[in-house]
Specification:
Layout lengths: L11 E2 L5 E2 L1 H17 L4 E4 L12 E9 L1 H5 L6 E8 L2 E9 L4 E6 L3 E4 L2 E2 L13 E4 L3 H4 E3 L4 E3 L4 H10 L2 E6 L4 H13 L3 E4 L21 E4 L2 H10 E3 L4
Parallel strand pairs: 3-4, 10-12, 10-13
Antiparallel strand pairs: 1-2, 4-5, 5-6, 6-7, 7-8, 8-9, 11-16, 13-15, 14-15
């Protein structure tokens, strides 16, 4: 928060064409130090440092120290921190905090999902309230042809956008090219809230694979409120082909 400015701050462009600010790096250093201090034997993957899955580590933390960096750099509100703890390569515990919204999403495998301590549950379609959202990223319509009966919204934070399915604001969410740190936490939150999570192209990234560098590995991820919504979406979301 000490780096945040409503008028925005300078952002640099990384080799993968994503933005990074001094806040990303400072948050990364703080979180890495805290995890190493409390759990020195665990492995760690972070967007900003150490993206290779370590070997011989049954517990690996997956950290996005600042998701929604472009929003942050422009003084917008949709940005936050995503931390997921993976056991044997599968998400087991997650916490995502969005400071300017004062929203803390948490989940533990088999124990449910929560928003600021209140239980979360996905919501099925309601004919009396037809204004649910379809959350997506800016690349979605470049890569897919989509026909869904929901209002489209792009929030600029993959972690937050995917959590909107868990909280019942969105009926459906699609991120076309997110990295493991963008969705590891949201994956567990949405699953524990009763949602459906599917990967469209390359199969599930879980369990993580040792010695794999996840910097350039993207996974098209679809989250839906119910199995019926997911099945209907899969019929109406098709990859674009070069003409």
């Amino acid at each position: 928060m000490k780096y945040y400015q409503p008028a925005g701050i300078r952002a640099n462009v990384k080799a993968d064409h994503t933005a990074v600010t001094e806040a990303d790096l400072a948050a990364d250093a703080l979180i890495r130090a805290a995890i190493k201090d409390q759990y020195p034997d665990d492995g760690l993957i972070s967007e900003e440092s150490g993206s290779i899955c370590p070997t011989g580590k049954p517990i690996v933390w997956v950290v996005d120290p600042l998701d929604g960096t472009t929003n942050f750099s422009l003084g917008l509100h949709y940005w936050g921190v995503s931390i997921a703890r993976l056991v044997d390569g599968e998400p087991d515990t997650a916490a995502l905090y969005f400071p300017l919204l004062n929203e803390l999403f948490t989940a533990q495998r088999g124990e449910g999902a929560f928003l600021n301590g209140e239980s979360l549950q996905t919501k099925p379609p309601n004919k009396d309230n037809p204004f649910s959202f379809f959350i997506c990223c800016s690349r979605t319509h470049q890569r897919y042809k989509i026909k869904v009966p929901y209002k489209t919204r792009i929030l600029g934070s993959a972690a937050y956008g995917l959590c909107t399915v868990a909280r019942g604001s969105a009926m459906l969410a699609l991120e076309a090219t997110p990295k493991i740190w963008d969705f590891a936490g949201s994956w567990l939150v949405t699953r524990e809230a009763g949602g459906v999570v599917q990967f469209l192209d390359d199969g599930s990234p879980f369990p993580l694979i040792e010695e794999v560098d996840y910097t350039n590995k993207g996974f098209s991820i679809l989250m839906a409120a119910t199995p019926e919504v997911a099945a209907r979406a899969r019929r109406n979301i098709t990859p674009r082909r070069d003409e």
